[in-house]
Amino acid sequence: MTATTIERRPVLTIDDLSVVYDVEQPVTAVKGASFELSAGEILGLAGESGCGKTTLAYAVNRLHKPPARIASGQIVFHDADGSDVDLLTLGHDELRAFRWSKLSMVFQGAMNALNPVTSIRTQLEDVLLTHRPELGKKERRERAADVLRRVGVDPVRLRSYPHELSGGMRQRVMIAMAMILEPQVMIMDEPTTALDVVVQRDILREIVRLRDELGFAVIFITHDLPLLLEISDRIAVMLRGEIVELGDAATMYRSPRHEYTKKLLASFPSLSGSRGSFIRTGIDREDAS
Ligand SMILES: Nc1ncnc2c1ncn2[C@@H]1O[C@H](COP(=O)(O)OP(=O)(O)O)[C@@H](O)[C@H]1O
Ligand SMILES: [Mg+2]
């Protein structure tokens, strides 16, 4: 296997981020997390349930709500247009404009978050109506069909309602929705955990292919480390709120440094063979710029 080299321009810098739940016995769910996400990179975030992955994802999006509070740190988005945006200082309206269009999120359990009484077309077009009001009706229709096609769903499904779709298809629709404004970063929190293994693999393959094609960066969150080894360029391992190891996926697989990473790897006996290469297609590239 050749080493994965990705474009080194950072798109997101997280520095010393701490998130506290201000409850009776305050919990610091994220402790001084620091990492950089490069443009076009797939960064895996691994760690067992309860270690703080979702809390981190919400904070990066500024979607956290009380009792969660960002206690320290900086989150800076480096826009492809050259400007730097300090996410923690954005006002409500700026944040609204920013979310989905620059940085979007696929939530844990998202496939159950679609509105049951509205068609897929309406839900996709509503994002465009809100964020791209300048588009005409025809363009909106075309974009909705196009983004659905990209995630592998026949545009005939635009007329469907969520309950008429399989879980895998609903999850693809959620990914389409997160992609429709062409964000530079997508955060995906356990996007395929609820799906069966075959559907999960299909969707992961699609995400990697879309990344190759469109060049967005992904923070991919799951407790499933073997899965991350297959699709990620780099992996961050989280333990009780702290990122304890961060490195190139192939290197981490060959020679994990932290005891916890070793333990995680050892707990998956199926990892004795080679790292699956069937999902990672075309990402061993020289330079994406
Ligand atoms: N609403 C809440 N109130 C208090 N503590 C919380 C709340 N949500 C999460 N936590 C704490 O934050 C920790 C991390 O949770 P979470 O970010 O959901 O972990 P993960 O996504 O890795 O499973 C939990 O172990 C829990 O202690
Ligand atoms: Mg979670």
UniProtKB/TrEMBL annotation:
Q: Where is the ABC transporter domain?
A: 12-265
How does the entry describe its membrane topology? Peripheral membrane protein
GO cellular component, as recorded: plasma membrane
**Pfam families listed in its UniProt record:** ABC_tran
Q: Where in the cell is it found?
A: Cell membrane
Which SUPFAM superfamilies did the record assign? Answer: P-loop containing nucleoside triphosphate hydrolases (SSF52540)
Renumbered to this chain, the signal peptide range is none
State the similarity comment: Belongs to the ABC transporter superfamily.
Name-wise, this protein is ABC transporter ATP-binding protein
Specify the species: Microbacterium sorbitolivorans
